[in-house]
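W.,

You were right to be curious about this one. When I first looked at the sequence I had no strong expectations either way, so I just let the prediction run and decided to look at it fresh. Below is the sequence, 636 residues in total, followed by the output.
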Amino acid sequence: MPHTTRARASEKSTRTRRTLAAGAASCLAAAMIMVAGPALAADGPFDINGEVPDAGTTEISDLFGNVKELGPLNSNTTKIGVIHNDAVPTLGETNPNSQVDLRRAWLDVEREAVTNDDWLYFAWERDKNTGSGFISYEFMQEEAPAACDYDGSTTAELIADCNPWANRSDGDFMILWDQQGGSLDLFLRVWDDSTGTLLLGAPTALNATVSQAAYSADGFRGEAAVNLTDTIFGGSTACLSFANTIPSTVTGNSDTADYKDTILATTPPISNCTTTTVTTPKTGAGGNIPVGGLSIGTGVVAVTDSAEVSLIGGTATPAGSVAFHLCKLDAPALCTTGGTSVGSTNLTGAAYPVTVSSPTAYVTSAGRYCWRAEFSGDSENGIPGSSDSRASECFTVNPVTPTLATSAGADVFLGNAVTDSATLGGTATQPADPVINLTGTAGPAAGGTITFELYGPDDCTTLAYTSPTVAVSGNGTYNSPAPQFVPTAPGEYHWVAVYSGSPPNTNGTTHNAACTDVNEDVVVNTVPSSLTSAQRWVPNDSVTVTAAAGGNLAGNVDFELFANATCSGTAIFSQLNVSVSGASPQTVLTNNTTAQLASGSFSWRVNYDSTNPAQEDIAASCHETSVLSIDNDIND
Protein backbone atom coordinates (compact mmCIF):
# COMPACT_ATOMS: atom_id res chain seq x y z
CA MET A 1 0.00 0.00 0.00
CA PRO A 2 1.27 3.53 -0.56
CA HIS A 3 3.07 4.68 2.51
CA THR A 4 5.69 7.00 3.83
CA THR A 5 8.27 5.43 6.11
CA ARG A 6 7.90 7.04 9.50
CA ALA A 7 11.10 8.10 11.21
CA ARG A 8 11.52 6.31 14.50
CA ALA A 9 14.09 7.10 17.16
CA SER A 10 17.52 5.94 16.02
CA GLU A 11 15.83 3.99 13.21
CA LYS A 12 14.80 1.30 15.62
CA SER A 13 18.26 1.10 17.10
CA THR A 14 16.52 0.91 20.44
CA ARG A 15 13.08 -0.52 20.97
CA THR A 16 11.02 -0.82 24.07
CA ARG A 17 10.48 -4.46 24.78
CA ARG A 18 8.19 -5.53 27.54
CA THR A 19 8.42 -8.96 29.20
CA LEU A 20 5.58 -10.09 31.37
CA ALA A 21 6.54 -11.76 34.65
CA ALA A 22 6.36 -15.52 34.42
CA GLY A 23 4.39 -15.67 37.62
CA ALA A 24 1.74 -13.35 36.27
CA ALA A 25 1.49 -15.41 33.10
CA SER A 26 0.98 -18.62 35.04
CA CYS A 27 -1.73 -17.05 37.16
CA LEU A 28 -3.64 -15.97 34.07
CA ALA A 29 -3.22 -19.16 32.11
CA ALA A 30 -6.29 -20.89 33.52
CA ALA A 31 -8.63 -18.02 32.85
CA MET A 32 -7.27 -16.45 29.64
CA ILE A 33 -4.80 -16.83 26.86
CA MET A 34 -1.31 -17.18 28.23
CA VAL A 35 0.40 -13.88 27.45
CA ALA A 36 3.93 -14.89 26.63
CA GLY A 37 6.68 -12.33 26.56
CA PRO A 38 7.58 -11.10 23.09
CA ALA A 39 10.42 -12.93 21.47
CA LEU A 40 13.52 -10.88 20.89
CA ALA A 41 12.98 -11.08 17.17
CA ALA A 42 12.91 -8.92 14.09
CA ASP A 43 10.17 -6.33 13.81
CA GLY A 44 11.67 -3.96 11.22
CA PRO A 45 10.30 -0.42 11.43
CA PHE A 46 7.57 -1.41 13.90
CA ASP A 47 7.45 -1.68 17.71
CA ILE A 48 6.14 -5.16 18.44
CA ASN A 49 5.89 -4.79 22.21
CA GLY A 50 2.26 -5.57 22.97
CA GLU A 51 1.19 -1.93 22.92
CA VAL A 52 -1.43 -2.25 20.17
CA PRO A 53 -1.63 -0.65 17.70
CA ASP A 54 1.49 1.09 16.37
CA ALA A 55 0.96 4.74 15.44
CA GLY A 56 -0.05 5.46 11.86
CA THR A 57 -1.55 2.06 11.11
CA THR A 58 -4.90 1.67 9.36
CA GLU A 59 -7.78 0.48 11.56
CA ILE A 60 -10.38 -1.93 10.11
CA SER A 61 -13.52 -2.09 12.25
CA ASP A 62 -15.92 -5.01 12.69
CA LEU A 63 -19.19 -5.74 14.45
CA PHE A 64 -18.86 -7.56 17.77
CA GLY A 65 -20.87 -8.57 20.78
CA ASN A 66 -24.28 -10.22 20.63
CA VAL A 67 -25.05 -9.04 17.11
CA LYS A 68 -25.20 -10.75 13.77
CA GLU A 69 -22.60 -10.01 11.15
CA LEU A 70 -21.66 -11.29 7.73
CA GLY A 71 -19.47 -14.36 7.54
CA PRO A 72 -19.06 -17.57 5.52
CA LEU A 73 -21.77 -20.16 5.77
CA ASN A 74 -20.68 -23.38 7.47
CA SER A 75 -20.40 -26.04 4.77
CA ASN A 76 -17.90 -28.29 3.02
CA THR A 77 -17.52 -25.72 0.25
CA THR A 78 -16.58 -22.87 2.58
CA LYS A 79 -13.48 -24.41 4.14
CA ILE A 80 -10.24 -22.42 3.91
CA GLY A 81 -8.85 -24.49 1.04
CA VAL A 82 -11.86 -24.39 -1.27
CA ILE A 83 -14.00 -21.35 -0.41
CA HIS A 84 -12.81 -19.51 -3.51
CA ASN A 85 -14.72 -22.03 -5.63
CA ASP A 86 -17.92 -21.75 -3.61
CA ALA A 87 -21.02 -20.74 -5.51
CA VAL A 88 -22.96 -17.87 -3.98
CA PRO A 89 -24.50 -17.51 -1.54
CA THR A 90 -21.21 -17.86 0.28
CA LEU A 91 -22.10 -15.49 3.10
CA GLY A 92 -24.74 -15.42 5.75
CA GLU A 93 -25.49 -13.68 9.01
CA THR A 94 -23.56 -15.24 11.89
CA ASN A 95 -22.88 -14.49 15.55
CA PRO A 96 -19.37 -15.74 16.43
CA ASN A 97 -18.50 -16.73 19.97
CA SER A 98 -16.79 -13.93 21.85
CA GLN A 99 -13.41 -15.75 22.07
CA VAL A 100 -13.24 -15.81 18.24
CA ASP A 101 -15.14 -12.58 17.59
CA LEU A 102 -12.88 -9.82 16.25
CA ARG A 103 -13.64 -6.27 17.25
CA ARG A 104 -11.17 -4.64 14.90
CA ALA A 105 -7.90 -5.15 13.10
CA TRP A 106 -4.99 -2.97 12.04
CA LEU A 107 -2.82 -3.08 8.93
CA ASP A 108 0.26 -1.26 7.64
CA VAL A 109 3.29 -1.72 5.39
CA GLU A 110 6.52 0.22 5.83
CA ARG A 111 10.03 0.10 4.45
CA GLU A 112 12.96 -0.18 6.81
CA ALA A 113 15.37 2.65 6.13
CA VAL A 114 18.65 0.73 6.50
CA THR A 115 17.89 -2.48 4.60
CA ASN A 116 15.07 -1.17 2.39
CA ASP A 117 13.12 -4.31 3.33
CA ASP A 118 9.33 -4.06 3.29
CA TRP A 119 7.59 -5.09 6.50
CA LEU A 120 3.96 -6.03 7.09
CA TYR A 121 2.26 -5.01 10.32
CA PHE A 122 -1.00 -6.62 11.40
CA ALA A 123 -2.81 -6.49 14.71
CA TRP A 124 -6.17 -7.55 16.16
CA GLU A 125 -8.51 -7.08 19.06
CA ARG A 126 -10.92 -9.81 20.23
CA ASP A 127 -14.17 -9.56 22.13
CA LYS A 128 -12.81 -11.87 24.85
CA ASN A 129 -9.37 -12.66 26.22
CA THR A 130 -10.00 -16.34 27.03
CA GLY A 131 -9.94 -19.35 24.75
CA SER A 132 -7.58 -20.18 21.95
CA GLY A 133 -7.52 -20.49 18.18
CA PHE A 134 -5.91 -19.13 15.08
CA ILE A 135 -5.74 -15.56 13.81
CA SER A 136 -5.59 -15.50 10.03
CA TYR A 137 -4.70 -12.67 7.63
CA GLU A 138 -5.21 -13.52 3.96
CA PHE A 139 -3.72 -11.33 1.22
CA MET A 140 -4.98 -11.53 -2.37
CA GLN A 141 -3.46 -9.73 -5.33
CA GLU A 142 -6.78 -9.13 -7.04
CA GLU A 143 -9.33 -6.75 -5.62
CA ALA A 144 -12.45 -8.20 -4.10
CA PRO A 145 -15.10 -9.06 -6.71
CA ALA A 146 -17.24 -6.14 -7.85
CA ALA A 147 -20.25 -7.75 -6.16
CA CYS A 148 -18.45 -7.33 -2.81
CA ASP A 149 -19.05 -3.60 -2.54
CA TYR A 150 -18.97 -3.46 1.23
CA ASP A 151 -19.63 0.26 1.37
CA GLY A 152 -22.36 0.49 -1.25
CA SER A 153 -24.32 -2.77 -1.10
CA THR A 154 -26.94 -3.95 1.33
CA THR A 155 -26.50 -7.07 3.45
CA ALA A 156 -29.02 -8.88 1.26
CA GLU A 157 -27.11 -7.97 -1.90
CA LEU A 158 -23.81 -9.16 -0.41
CA ILE A 159 -25.35 -12.45 0.67
CA ALA A 160 -26.83 -12.97 -2.78
CA ASP A 161 -23.83 -12.08 -4.91
CA CYS A 162 -20.56 -11.77 -2.95
CA ASN A 163 -17.84 -14.39 -2.51
CA PRO A 164 -14.92 -12.35 -1.09
CA TRP A 165 -12.40 -15.11 -1.89
CA ALA A 166 -13.45 -15.68 -5.50
CA ASN A 167 -10.48 -13.78 -6.96
CA ARG A 168 -7.74 -15.85 -5.33
CA SER A 169 -4.75 -16.38 -7.61
CA ASP A 170 -1.27 -17.89 -7.72
CA GLY A 171 1.07 -16.16 -5.24
CA ASP A 172 -1.66 -15.06 -2.82
CA PHE A 173 -0.75 -15.88 0.78
CA MET A 174 -2.02 -16.31 4.33
CA ILE A 175 -0.30 -15.65 7.64
CA LEU A 176 -1.70 -17.63 10.55
CA TRP A 177 -1.01 -17.07 14.22
CA ASP A 178 -1.44 -20.17 16.35
CA GLN A 179 -2.48 -18.82 19.74
CA GLN A 180 -2.89 -22.10 21.61
CA GLY A 181 -1.16 -21.85 24.97
CA GLY A 182 -0.24 -18.23 24.35
CA SER A 183 1.92 -19.19 21.40
CA LEU A 184 3.73 -16.58 19.32
CA ASP A 185 4.18 -18.93 16.36
CA LEU A 186 3.48 -17.48 12.92
CA PHE A 187 2.99 -19.58 9.79
CA LEU A 188 3.03 -18.64 6.11
CA ARG A 189 0.95 -20.47 3.49
CA VAL A 190 1.13 -19.48 -0.20
CA TRP A 191 -1.34 -20.31 -2.98
CA ASP A 192 0.10 -22.16 -5.96
CA ASP A 193 -1.51 -23.12 -9.29
CA SER A 194 1.54 -24.73 -10.91
CA THR A 195 -0.43 -27.99 -11.19
CA GLY A 196 -3.32 -26.31 -12.95
CA THR A 197 -5.36 -26.29 -9.77
CA LEU A 198 -5.11 -23.54 -7.20
CA LEU A 199 -3.80 -25.21 -4.03
CA LEU A 200 -2.79 -23.87 -0.63
CA GLY A 201 0.85 -24.60 0.12
CA ALA A 202 2.00 -26.26 3.30
CA PRO A 203 2.54 -24.10 6.39
CA THR A 204 6.03 -22.62 6.76
CA ALA A 205 7.03 -21.40 10.18
CA LEU A 206 8.31 -17.83 10.22
CA ASN A 207 11.40 -17.65 12.38
CA ALA A 208 12.71 -14.83 14.51
CA THR A 209 14.88 -13.39 11.74
CA VAL A 210 11.86 -12.41 9.66
CA SER A 211 9.02 -11.96 12.17
CA GLN A 212 7.93 -11.04 15.64
CA ALA A 213 4.63 -11.25 17.55
CA ALA A 214 3.34 -10.04 20.91
CA TYR A 215 0.15 -10.00 23.00
CA SER A 216 -1.07 -7.03 24.94
CA ALA A 217 -0.82 -7.28 28.70
CA ASP A 218 -4.56 -7.91 29.07
CA GLY A 219 -4.70 -10.52 26.32
CA PHE A 220 -7.40 -8.78 24.29
CA ARG A 221 -5.00 -7.63 21.59
CA GLY A 222 -2.04 -8.85 19.63
CA GLU A 223 0.33 -7.53 16.99
CA ALA A 224 2.90 -8.96 14.62
CA ALA A 225 5.43 -7.88 12.00
CA VAL A 226 6.65 -9.95 9.05
CA ASN A 227 9.50 -9.19 6.65
CA LEU A 228 7.70 -9.35 3.28
CA THR A 229 10.88 -8.86 1.29
CA ASP A 230 12.39 -12.05 2.65
CA THR A 231 9.23 -14.15 2.96
CA ILE A 232 6.97 -13.11 0.08
CA PHE A 233 8.88 -10.90 -2.31
CA GLY A 234 12.25 -12.60 -1.98
CA GLY A 235 13.98 -13.55 -5.22
CA SER A 236 11.69 -11.34 -7.32
CA THR A 237 12.43 -7.82 -8.44
CA ALA A 238 8.99 -7.42 -9.98
CA CYS A 239 6.51 -5.23 -8.17
CA LEU A 240 3.84 -7.17 -6.31
CA SER A 241 0.66 -5.78 -4.82
CA PHE A 242 -2.08 -7.31 -2.70
CA ALA A 243 -5.34 -5.43 -2.96
CA ASN A 244 -7.72 -7.56 -0.90
CA THR A 245 -6.98 -8.40 2.75
CA ILE A 246 -9.34 -10.44 4.93
CA PRO A 247 -8.57 -10.65 8.68
CA SER A 248 -10.20 -13.73 10.24
CA THR A 249 -10.33 -16.15 13.09
CA VAL A 250 -10.21 -19.81 11.97
CA THR A 251 -10.36 -23.19 13.66
CA GLY A 252 -6.92 -24.37 12.63
CA ASN A 253 -4.05 -24.46 10.18
CA SER A 254 -5.44 -27.13 7.85
CA ASP A 255 -7.14 -26.77 4.48
CA THR A 256 -10.38 -27.98 6.07
CA ALA A 257 -10.44 -25.40 8.84
CA ASP A 258 -13.57 -23.29 9.18
CA TYR A 259 -13.86 -19.51 9.30
CA LYS A 260 -15.32 -18.33 12.61
CA ASP A 261 -15.26 -14.54 12.17
CA THR A 262 -14.20 -12.47 9.18
CA ILE A 263 -13.78 -8.74 8.78
CA LEU A 264 -15.25 -8.00 5.38
CA ALA A 265 -14.25 -4.44 4.49
CA THR A 266 -12.34 -2.46 1.90
CA THR A 267 -8.71 -2.56 2.99
CA PRO A 268 -5.65 -0.62 1.87
CA PRO A 269 -3.47 -2.54 -0.61
CA ILE A 270 0.03 -3.65 0.33
CA SER A 271 2.95 -3.67 -2.10
CA ASN A 272 6.71 -4.06 -2.23
CA CYS A 273 6.79 -1.07 -4.54
CA THR A 274 6.00 2.54 -3.95
CA THR A 275 6.09 5.48 -6.26
CA THR A 276 6.76 9.13 -5.79
CA THR A 277 5.56 11.92 -8.00
CA VAL A 278 7.50 15.16 -7.84
CA THR A 279 6.27 18.03 -9.95
CA THR A 280 7.57 21.41 -11.02
CA PRO A 281 5.43 24.20 -12.53
CA LYS A 282 6.70 25.35 -15.91
CA THR A 283 6.00 28.03 -18.47
CA GLY A 284 4.16 27.12 -21.63
CA ALA A 285 7.53 26.77 -23.34
CA GLY A 286 8.77 24.43 -20.62
CA GLY A 287 11.02 26.89 -18.81
CA ASN A 288 11.18 27.43 -15.08
CA ILE A 289 8.77 29.94 -13.61
CA PRO A 290 10.64 32.83 -11.94
CA VAL A 291 10.44 33.14 -8.17
CA GLY A 292 8.41 36.31 -8.53
CA GLY A 293 5.93 34.65 -10.86
CA LEU A 294 4.74 35.26 -14.40
CA SER A 295 3.20 38.35 -15.95
CA ILE A 296 -0.36 38.11 -17.23
CA GLY A 297 1.05 39.74 -20.38
CA THR A 298 -1.73 40.59 -22.80
CA GLY A 299 -4.22 38.59 -20.76
CA VAL A 300 -3.48 34.93 -21.52
CA VAL A 301 -0.51 32.98 -20.10
CA ALA A 302 0.42 29.45 -21.16
CA VAL A 303 1.65 27.16 -18.36
CA THR A 304 2.53 23.49 -18.02
CA ASP A 305 3.52 21.10 -15.25
CA SER A 306 6.44 18.68 -15.22
CA ALA A 307 6.09 15.46 -13.22
CA GLU A 308 8.86 13.02 -12.39
CA VAL A 309 7.54 9.58 -11.40
CA SER A 310 10.00 7.37 -9.52
CA LEU A 311 9.67 3.72 -8.50
CA ILE A 312 11.00 2.57 -5.14
CA GLY A 313 11.44 -1.15 -4.68
CA GLY A 314 11.13 -3.63 -7.53
CA THR A 315 11.50 -3.06 -11.23
CA ALA A 316 9.01 -2.59 -14.03
CA THR A 317 8.67 -0.98 -17.42
CA PRO A 318 7.03 2.42 -17.00
CA ALA A 319 3.29 2.34 -17.63
CA GLY A 320 0.22 4.24 -16.56
CA SER A 321 -0.37 7.96 -16.86
CA VAL A 322 -0.19 11.21 -14.94
CA ALA A 323 -3.35 13.30 -14.74
CA PHE A 324 -2.92 17.02 -14.19
CA HIS A 325 -5.26 19.49 -12.51
CA LEU A 326 -4.82 23.23 -12.04
CA CYS A 327 -6.54 25.27 -9.31
CA LYS A 328 -6.78 29.02 -8.68
CA LEU A 329 -6.45 29.42 -4.91
CA ASP A 330 -5.63 31.95 -2.24
CA ALA A 331 -2.66 31.16 0.01
CA PRO A 332 -2.09 28.89 1.81
CA ALA A 333 -4.61 26.53 0.17
CA LEU A 334 -3.30 23.75 -2.11
CA CYS A 335 -4.85 21.93 -5.06
CA THR A 336 -5.50 18.72 -3.15
CA THR A 337 -8.87 18.17 -4.84
CA GLY A 338 -10.90 19.56 -7.70
CA GLY A 339 -9.57 22.16 -10.08
CA THR A 340 -9.56 22.26 -13.86
CA SER A 341 -8.65 19.00 -15.55
CA VAL A 342 -5.82 19.76 -17.94
CA GLY A 343 -5.56 16.22 -19.29
CA SER A 344 -3.14 13.36 -18.81
CA THR A 345 0.14 12.14 -20.25
CA ASN A 346 1.20 8.50 -20.58
CA LEU A 347 4.48 7.28 -19.15
CA THR A 348 6.99 6.09 -21.72
CA GLY A 349 10.57 4.92 -21.62
CA ALA A 350 12.59 1.89 -20.61
CA ALA A 351 12.91 2.48 -16.89
CA TYR A 352 11.90 4.67 -13.97
CA PRO A 353 12.21 7.54 -13.15
CA VAL A 354 10.13 9.03 -15.96
CA THR A 355 9.45 12.72 -16.50
CA VAL A 356 6.31 13.76 -18.33
CA SER A 357 4.83 17.15 -19.12
CA SER A 358 1.21 18.13 -18.88
CA PRO A 359 -0.82 19.45 -21.78
CA THR A 360 -0.77 23.24 -21.97
CA ALA A 361 -3.19 25.17 -19.80
CA TYR A 362 -4.00 28.84 -20.28
CA VAL A 363 -4.69 31.14 -17.33
CA THR A 364 -6.51 34.40 -17.94
CA SER A 365 -6.50 36.01 -14.52
CA ALA A 366 -3.79 37.31 -12.26
CA GLY A 367 -3.59 35.41 -8.98
CA ARG A 368 -2.16 32.32 -7.31
CA TYR A 369 -2.33 28.94 -9.04
CA CYS A 370 -1.45 25.44 -7.85
CA TRP A 371 -0.98 22.21 -9.81
CA ARG A 372 -1.86 18.69 -8.77
CA ALA A 373 -0.31 15.70 -10.56
CA GLU A 374 -1.75 12.22 -9.97
CA PHE A 375 0.11 9.13 -11.17
CA SER A 376 -2.42 6.39 -11.89
CA GLY A 377 -0.12 3.56 -10.88
CA ASP A 378 0.20 0.34 -12.85
CA SER A 379 -2.13 -2.27 -11.38
CA GLU A 380 -1.00 -4.93 -13.84
CA ASN A 381 2.51 -4.72 -12.44
CA GLY A 382 1.47 -4.08 -8.85
CA ILE A 383 2.69 -0.49 -8.85
CA PRO A 384 0.63 1.88 -6.71
CA GLY A 385 -0.14 5.43 -7.68
CA SER A 386 1.09 8.63 -6.07
CA SER A 387 0.46 12.32 -6.35
CA ASP A 388 1.96 15.72 -5.67
CA SER A 389 0.11 18.86 -4.65
CA ARG A 390 2.66 20.52 -2.38
CA ALA A 391 3.22 24.24 -2.03
CA SER A 392 6.08 23.92 -4.51
CA GLU A 393 3.38 23.24 -7.10
CA CYS A 394 2.09 26.80 -6.72
CA PHE A 395 3.03 29.91 -8.68
CA THR A 396 1.84 33.47 -9.11
CA VAL A 397 0.57 35.31 -12.16
CA ASN A 398 1.07 39.07 -11.76
CA PRO A 399 -1.00 41.91 -13.26
CA VAL A 400 0.51 44.36 -15.74
CA THR A 401 0.98 48.08 -15.26
CA PRO A 402 -0.01 49.80 -18.51
CA THR A 403 1.53 52.85 -20.15
CA LEU A 404 -0.33 56.16 -20.20
CA ALA A 405 1.04 58.80 -22.56
CA THR A 406 -0.75 62.14 -22.70
CA SER A 407 -0.72 65.27 -24.84
CA ALA A 408 -2.33 68.57 -23.93
CA GLY A 409 -4.16 70.69 -26.48
CA ALA A 410 -2.74 73.95 -27.83
CA ASP A 411 -2.29 77.07 -25.73
CA VAL A 412 -5.38 79.27 -25.72
CA PHE A 413 -6.44 82.81 -24.99
CA LEU A 414 -8.43 83.45 -21.88
CA GLY A 415 -12.05 82.62 -22.50
CA ASN A 416 -11.38 79.51 -24.58
CA ALA A 417 -11.56 75.83 -23.55
CA VAL A 418 -8.46 73.71 -22.80
CA THR A 419 -8.25 70.02 -23.79
CA ASP A 420 -6.16 66.89 -23.16
CA SER A 421 -5.85 63.41 -24.65
CA ALA A 422 -4.37 60.18 -23.24
CA THR A 423 -3.07 57.12 -25.07
CA LEU A 424 -3.41 53.94 -23.04
CA GLY A 425 -1.21 50.95 -23.93
CA GLY A 426 0.01 47.66 -22.51
CA THR A 427 -3.28 46.61 -20.91
CA ALA A 428 -4.28 42.97 -20.43
CA THR A 429 -7.64 41.53 -21.32
CA GLN A 430 -10.02 40.72 -18.51
CA PRO A 431 -10.38 37.13 -17.20
CA ALA A 432 -12.17 34.70 -19.47
CA ASP A 433 -14.96 32.39 -18.35
CA PRO A 434 -13.70 29.94 -17.24
CA VAL A 435 -10.52 31.54 -15.93
CA ILE A 436 -8.47 28.44 -16.86
CA ASN A 437 -9.00 26.97 -20.31
CA LEU A 438 -7.22 24.70 -22.77
CA THR A 439 -7.72 26.78 -25.91
CA GLY A 440 -6.08 30.11 -25.12
CA THR A 441 -9.39 31.97 -25.24
CA ALA A 442 -9.05 35.52 -23.89
CA GLY A 443 -11.58 37.59 -22.00
CA PRO A 444 -12.96 41.00 -23.01
CA ALA A 445 -10.72 44.04 -23.42
CA ALA A 446 -9.55 45.86 -20.33
CA GLY A 447 -12.15 48.14 -18.79
CA GLY A 448 -11.89 50.92 -16.26
CA THR A 449 -11.96 54.68 -16.67
CA ILE A 450 -9.65 57.63 -17.37
CA THR A 451 -10.10 60.91 -15.52
CA PHE A 452 -8.43 64.15 -16.60
CA GLU A 453 -7.36 66.60 -13.87
CA LEU A 454 -6.18 70.16 -14.47
CA TYR A 455 -3.91 71.94 -11.97
CA GLY A 456 -3.00 75.63 -11.88
CA PRO A 457 -2.61 78.33 -12.76
CA ASP A 458 1.13 78.42 -12.21
CA ASP A 459 1.31 75.62 -9.60
CA CYS A 460 0.76 71.86 -9.27
CA THR A 461 -1.19 71.94 -6.01
CA THR A 462 -4.37 73.76 -6.94
CA LEU A 463 -6.91 71.52 -8.61
CA ALA A 464 -8.74 73.67 -11.10
CA TYR A 465 -10.87 71.03 -12.80
CA THR A 466 -11.72 67.31 -12.80
CA SER A 467 -13.31 65.91 -15.93
CA PRO A 468 -16.13 63.40 -16.10
CA THR A 469 -14.77 59.83 -16.38
CA VAL A 470 -14.12 58.35 -19.79
CA ALA A 471 -14.94 54.64 -20.17
CA VAL A 472 -12.03 52.50 -21.39
CA SER A 473 -12.18 49.49 -23.66
CA GLY A 474 -8.65 48.28 -24.17
CA ASN A 475 -5.67 50.12 -25.57
CA GLY A 476 -6.32 53.36 -27.45
CA THR A 477 -6.43 57.15 -27.35
CA TYR A 478 -9.05 58.82 -25.17
CA ASN A 479 -9.89 62.56 -25.14
CA SER A 480 -11.03 64.73 -22.27
CA PRO A 481 -14.81 64.69 -22.53
CA ALA A 482 -17.36 67.47 -22.97
CA PRO A 483 -18.14 69.84 -21.47
CA GLN A 484 -14.67 71.26 -21.96
CA PHE A 485 -13.21 73.41 -19.22
CA VAL A 486 -12.82 77.17 -19.78
CA PRO A 487 -10.29 78.73 -17.36
CA THR A 488 -11.19 82.04 -15.76
CA ALA A 489 -7.63 83.10 -14.96
CA PRO A 490 -4.55 83.28 -17.19
CA GLY A 491 -1.38 81.35 -16.48
CA GLU A 492 0.28 77.97 -17.01
CA TYR A 493 -1.84 74.90 -16.30
CA HIS A 494 -0.84 71.21 -16.00
CA TRP A 495 -2.90 68.22 -17.07
CA VAL A 496 -2.76 64.95 -15.07
CA ALA A 497 -4.37 61.77 -16.43
CA VAL A 498 -5.52 59.01 -14.04
CA TYR A 499 -6.39 55.47 -15.23
CA SER A 500 -8.40 53.43 -12.71
CA GLY A 501 -7.09 50.04 -13.84
CA SER A 502 -9.09 46.91 -14.65
CA PRO A 503 -8.57 44.40 -11.81
CA PRO A 504 -7.27 41.81 -11.50
CA ASN A 505 -5.20 41.83 -14.68
CA THR A 506 -4.41 45.51 -15.26
CA ASN A 507 -3.16 47.91 -12.60
CA GLY A 508 -4.13 51.54 -12.43
CA THR A 509 -1.63 54.26 -13.30
CA THR A 510 -1.28 58.06 -13.21
CA HIS A 511 0.61 60.21 -15.68
CA ASN A 512 2.27 63.53 -14.84
CA ALA A 513 1.37 63.57 -11.16
CA ALA A 514 4.44 65.74 -10.52
CA CYS A 515 3.58 68.11 -13.39
CA THR A 516 6.95 67.54 -15.04
CA ASP A 517 5.77 66.53 -18.50
CA VAL A 518 5.96 69.64 -20.68
CA ASN A 519 3.64 67.96 -23.17
CA GLU A 520 0.95 68.27 -20.52
CA ASP A 521 1.42 72.01 -20.02
CA VAL A 522 -1.05 74.47 -21.50
CA VAL A 523 -0.79 78.25 -21.28
CA VAL A 524 -3.88 80.43 -21.02
CA ASN A 525 -2.90 83.83 -22.44
CA THR A 526 -4.55 87.26 -22.05
CA VAL A 527 -5.81 88.91 -25.30
CA PRO A 528 -3.16 91.48 -26.62
CA SER A 529 -4.29 95.21 -26.64
CA SER A 530 -3.64 97.83 -29.41
CA LEU A 531 -4.28 101.66 -29.74
CA THR A 532 -5.10 103.13 -33.07
CA SER A 533 -5.31 106.96 -33.24
CA ALA A 534 -7.65 108.39 -35.82
CA GLN A 535 -8.00 112.20 -35.95
CA ARG A 536 -11.36 113.51 -36.87
CA TRP A 537 -11.95 117.13 -38.07
CA VAL A 538 -15.41 118.50 -38.55
CA PRO A 539 -15.11 121.71 -40.64
CA ASN A 540 -17.61 124.45 -39.72
CA ASP A 541 -17.75 128.15 -40.53
CA SER A 542 -19.33 131.27 -39.10
CA VAL A 543 -20.03 134.71 -40.56
CA THR A 544 -20.89 137.99 -38.91
CA VAL A 545 -23.08 140.34 -40.98
CA THR A 546 -22.86 144.04 -40.22
CA ALA A 547 -24.77 146.97 -41.70
CA ALA A 548 -24.00 150.47 -40.41
CA ALA A 549 -27.50 151.82 -41.07
CA GLY A 550 -30.72 150.87 -42.67
CA GLY A 551 -32.44 149.21 -39.76
CA ASN A 552 -32.38 145.64 -38.70
CA LEU A 553 -30.64 143.02 -40.73
CA ALA A 554 -32.82 140.79 -42.88
CA GLY A 555 -31.59 138.18 -45.35
CA ASN A 556 -29.90 134.81 -45.80
CA VAL A 557 -26.35 133.49 -45.80
CA ASP A 558 -25.20 130.55 -48.00
CA PHE A 559 -22.25 128.35 -46.86
CA GLU A 560 -20.44 125.97 -49.28
CA LEU A 561 -17.39 123.85 -48.39
CA PHE A 562 -15.01 122.57 -51.04
CA ALA A 563 -12.24 120.01 -50.72
CA ASN A 564 -9.76 122.33 -52.43
CA ALA A 565 -8.38 125.81 -51.99
CA THR A 566 -10.22 127.43 -54.91
CA CYS A 567 -13.89 126.76 -54.20
CA SER A 568 -14.11 124.89 -57.43
CA GLY A 569 -16.01 121.77 -58.31
CA THR A 570 -18.78 120.32 -56.24
CA ALA A 571 -19.20 121.33 -52.68
CA ILE A 572 -18.71 118.61 -50.10
CA PHE A 573 -20.97 120.40 -47.68
CA SER A 574 -23.46 123.18 -48.10
CA GLN A 575 -25.83 124.93 -45.77
CA LEU A 576 -28.04 127.44 -47.64
CA ASN A 577 -30.50 130.12 -46.67
CA VAL A 578 -29.29 130.49 -43.14
CA SER A 579 -31.50 133.28 -41.84
CA VAL A 580 -29.95 136.52 -40.62
CA SER A 581 -32.20 138.91 -38.75
CA GLY A 582 -32.06 141.41 -35.95
CA ALA A 583 -30.02 144.35 -35.02
CA SER A 584 -26.58 144.61 -36.64
CA PRO A 585 -24.24 142.82 -36.23
CA GLN A 586 -25.47 139.20 -36.40
CA THR A 587 -23.32 135.99 -36.40
CA VAL A 588 -24.58 132.74 -37.91
CA LEU A 589 -22.92 129.30 -37.77
CA THR A 590 -22.86 126.09 -39.82
CA ASN A 591 -23.89 122.80 -38.24
CA ASN A 592 -21.73 120.37 -40.26
CA THR A 593 -21.36 116.94 -38.61
CA THR A 594 -19.39 115.14 -41.31
CA ALA A 595 -15.79 114.67 -40.15
CA GLN A 596 -12.85 114.79 -42.47
CA LEU A 597 -10.28 112.01 -41.96
CA ALA A 598 -7.81 112.71 -44.71
CA SER A 599 -5.28 115.48 -45.12
CA GLY A 600 -5.96 118.18 -47.77
CA SER A 601 -6.91 121.79 -48.61
CA PHE A 602 -10.38 123.14 -47.90
CA SER A 603 -12.14 126.39 -48.83
CA TRP A 604 -15.43 128.05 -47.92
CA ARG A 605 -17.56 130.10 -50.30
CA VAL A 606 -19.99 132.40 -48.53
CA ASN A 607 -22.57 135.00 -49.73
CA TYR A 608 -25.24 137.18 -48.08
CA ASP A 609 -28.53 137.89 -49.77
CA SER A 610 -30.18 140.84 -48.06
CA THR A 611 -33.94 141.15 -48.11
CA ASN A 612 -33.80 144.63 -46.51
CA PRO A 613 -33.80 147.08 -49.41
CA ALA A 614 -31.82 149.50 -47.38
CA GLN A 615 -28.93 147.11 -47.15
CA GLU A 616 -26.81 145.63 -49.94
CA ASP A 617 -26.15 142.01 -50.81
CA ILE A 618 -22.71 140.51 -50.35
CA ALA A 619 -21.70 138.46 -53.39
CA ALA A 620 -20.28 134.98 -53.02
CA SER A 621 -16.56 134.90 -52.56
CA CYS A 622 -13.90 132.26 -51.85
CA HIS A 623 -12.22 134.21 -49.20
CA GLU A 624 -11.66 131.39 -46.55
CA THR A 625 -9.10 128.60 -47.08
CA SER A 626 -7.42 126.08 -44.78
CA VAL A 627 -4.98 123.15 -45.05
CA LEU A 628 -5.59 119.94 -42.99
CA SER A 629 -2.69 117.58 -42.18
CA ILE A 630 -3.65 114.24 -40.37
CA ASP A 631 -0.93 111.86 -39.09
CA ASN A 632 -2.52 108.84 -37.29
CA ASP A 633 -0.56 106.10 -35.34
CA ILE A 634 -1.15 102.60 -33.79
CA ASN A 635 0.26 101.68 -30.36
CA ASP A 636 0.33 97.98 -29.25
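Here's what jumped out at me. The CA atoms of residues 64 and 103 lie 5 Å apart. And, maybe more interesting for your project: The radius of gyration is 57 Å.

Coffee later to discuss?

I.
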